[in-house]
Amino acid sequence: MVFTGLALFTAFMLVVIAVITVLNVLTFPRLNAAPSPKETPFVSVLIPARDEAAIIGETIQKLLAQDYPHYELLLLDDHSTDGTAGVARLAARDDPRLRILSGAPLPGGWMGKSWACHQLANTARGDILVFTDADVLWEPTALSRLVSEMHKRGSDLHTVWPTQITVTWGERLVVALLAFVIVGYLPVLAVHHIPWPVFAAATGQCLAFRRAAYMAVGGHAAIRASIIDDMAFAKAIKRRKMRLRLVDGAGLIRCRMYRSWAAVRDGFAKNILAGHGSSIPLLLLSWAFHWLLFLAPWVWLMTGWLGGPDGWPWQPLCLIGLGVGVRALTAAFSGQRVGDALLLPVSVILMAIIATQAIAWRLRYGGIRWKGRVVKG
Questions:
Q1: Which of 27, 76, 77, 180 is the most exposed place for a label (fewest CB within 10 A)?
Q2: Is 80 exceeded by the pLDDT of residue 44?
Q3: Cα(138)–Cα(258) distance, rounded to whole angstroms?
Q4: Cα gap 139→251, rounded to integer Å
């Protein structure tokens, strides 16, 4: 009876995820669907950067190639040791739209990125503030499309989920799961139309605020200690009954977050515990839930020939088909490799390794390790 109950629970949850996925594929707005903007308010594009010399040159060149007519580009060099500012300056070729700031020392109680963004916002002149990461690449029409989307949807905070560039196996099996979570777990219609903060979502890779909305929620000073600052902003916008909107980057805004398994592991470990309310028991419960949904059916299929509960092999095959099908559909929607869906059990195991890294950091350091800093909490 226990086994049957677990199988029914697994089937029910997979069907729920499948329904959310299909609805999102049909309703999730895409950046390339927006026409050119009729209004062109002054935009400040703001980049916090720490030791990003390897990629900042291409990022700056692409941002300075935007067809939007009315913007500035600000880069804050957060005490880099690899010549990030110099590379950015060379890439800009004296373009006056780029200004490079030197970061002030990090005060107590602040996350490094939030402090950098706070300094950028205080210097920016734009009516729209676009915070974007140093590894996010913008195609020439992307900024125009973003401003047009903001005007069309009347958003106070508009966030774009970049198309993820995945090359190594670690990226393909873990980074691609971002689309799985966003499209499979997050009902975008609820995010757009239900005011409850539980339906808040955003990505720090691209956050576009109307300045008045940014100031109304207190800016980065209000979320200074938050590890997942994007979610903190999304919830703050919801609490103030302002308009939050999500859009898929559709290849116009792209990002390669990490370039090795070690970088993927540490990067995801940085956020995974905070994403579970900084609760180790809740993270372990999530771990068990995902093993039940996406790994246990494979174990049942492979061992069922030894005997046991009825329903083998068709029941585990149906459960596997649901899980792999959802993963494949989210991959197709987000520009990832559909065939990698067959390796979903490996992805689940890798996420368990990442969770273990996060727990180890918490127990050893009391927080996370990132870019040479230990962040408590």
A1: 27
A2: yes
A3: 17
A4: 8
User: Whole-model pTM?
Assistant: 0.91
**CB-CB contact of 179 with 334 (8 Å):** yes
| Domain identity same for 157 and 304 | no
Q: Quick one: 331 and 219 in the same domain?
A: no
Residue 130 CB neighbour total at 10 angstroms: 25
- Asked if 334 and 243 sit in the same domain, the reply is no
Reading the block at residue 285, the tokens are 């419960």
Q: What is the pLDDT of residue 307?
A: 58
Residue 369's pLDDT is 74
Residue 83 has pLDDT above 70, yes or no: yes
Q: Is the domain of 239 the same as that of 289?
A: no
Q: Note whether 249 and 288 are same-domain residues.
A: no
Nearest to 268 by CA among 203, 357, 343: 357
Under the banding of pLDDT at 50, 70 and 90, the label for residue 372 is low
Q: Are residues 76 and 213 in the same domain?
A: yes
Residue 158 is inside which H or E element, if any? strand 157-161
Contact by Cβ (8 Å): 362, 273: yes
Q: How far apart are CA 377 and CA 368, in angstroms?
A: 8
Residue pointed to by tokens 């980074």: 175
The reported pLDDT for the residue numbered 288 is: 95
Q: Which residue has the tokens 């989210």?
A: 330
| Whether 198 and 287 share a structural domain | no
For residues 278 and 208, membership in a common domain is answered with no
Burial of 44 (0-12, 13-18, 19+ CB in 10 A): buried
Question: Which structural domain, as residue segments, surrounds residue 276?
Answer: 2-24+263-376
**Cα(37)–Cα(68) distance, rounded to whole angstroms?**
9
For 90-140, the pLDDT digits (tens) are 999 999 999 999 999 999 999 999 999 999 999 999 999 999 999 999 999
Nearest CA to 183 out of 352, 358, 298, 30 is that of 30
The answer to whether 204 and 257 are in contact (CB under 8 A) is no
| Cis preceding linkage at 313, omega within 30 | yes
CA dihedral 185, 267, 361, 280 (to 10 degrees): 0
Which has the closest alpha carbon to 157: 88, 82, 104, 214? 214
| pLDDT band with cut points at 50, 70 and 90 for residue 224 | very high
